[in-house]
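Protein modeling request. Please complete all fields; requests missing the sequence field cannot be processed.
Requester role: graduate student
Desired output: 3D structure, token encoding
Chains: 1
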Amino acid sequence: MIGRQFIAFGFIVVGLVCNGQSTNALMATMNSFLKPHGKNPVHSIQVFISRGDEIFCESVGFSDGMRQQADKDNQFKIASITKTMTAVAILQLQEEGRLSIDDKVSRYLGDIPFVRVNELSFYERISYGESITIKQLLQHSSGIADIFTDATLRFYLNEFLYKKQQWNAEKLMNRYYKYGLNKSAHFAPDSGYFYSDINYFLLGLIIEKCSGVSLAQQFRSRIFKPLNMENTYLEYYEPALGNGKIAHSFMGKMDITKILNTSYDWAGGGVVSTTTDLARFLQGLFTGKLFSNELTLRKMTTTLPHKLKSGDIKYYGLGISQMDFNGDIYFGHAGFWGSLVAYCPSQNITFCGNVNQVKPGFNTKNFIETLIRNFMDI
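Delivered output (378 residues):
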């Protein structure tokens, strides 16, 4: 389930928009990637790209897959882009002296019965739960197994049997133990990379423990409100906010927005937002609006290379990825339901996009690079 120099922040609202001819060319490119039929239909696409005071923000297709015309302000499930927000909150708590990312997780969660820190992670029959640090959770270097990728069939079979069940942190951790995943760690802490949402569930609990309030309240006070993200909220954990124009998420032909309660995403992927609000988030992060010390962002974006089973190299920092588009380095994150955000410091480019299909049937890197190239040619 599927790692966060800029001009005045307010330009998102009042900046210059691409001229009509340029907008038409970019929208034609977006339309060419729509695929309303087949096993994995792509019903709608939303894109925000900016450089300096020039902005392209549009949508194509049908947001509900049928008759509702897509809107550039559609809200959508951002999935694992949420992890960057969770990481920001953790790093802000460190700046405030409430924690250190080098602290052991047990220091904050050791007294929560359902976490069971001493049983949290076994590798080759050795328990490592007591030695895992916050930093290792942020980097996915804890070795902790994942309920979504290590128990995919069992988890989603349960989800489709009980489609409307509401999750919380305790239920998520109970499911982790029910599947025996604590005995299936991928490696000893700090000796590899394995992407696990359990890492971010634990981080969400640490945020709540250190702050004394819910994760939803922390996101709102630390990120959403300061950055004027009016169409953003933690779904299922606070009232739905914003314009209510929802772009549905599809897994194959299944309309997940209609049939499934995705409260299981929580601190690892539970936020709903828009491309414009996500641009506010990225730009706020990279213009020093979220951290009091510029070194914090530098540490967050210091990425390490990890070789994946596919043979690809993944660069991941503290809740943020390093990516390459058209030969330029970007920082951001992707989300399972078809979203991606990326910021390029050297070119001053922000990209935020949403394709409402888990498996769109096209190469998303090529899709993004094509759009960025077209935008740069304006």
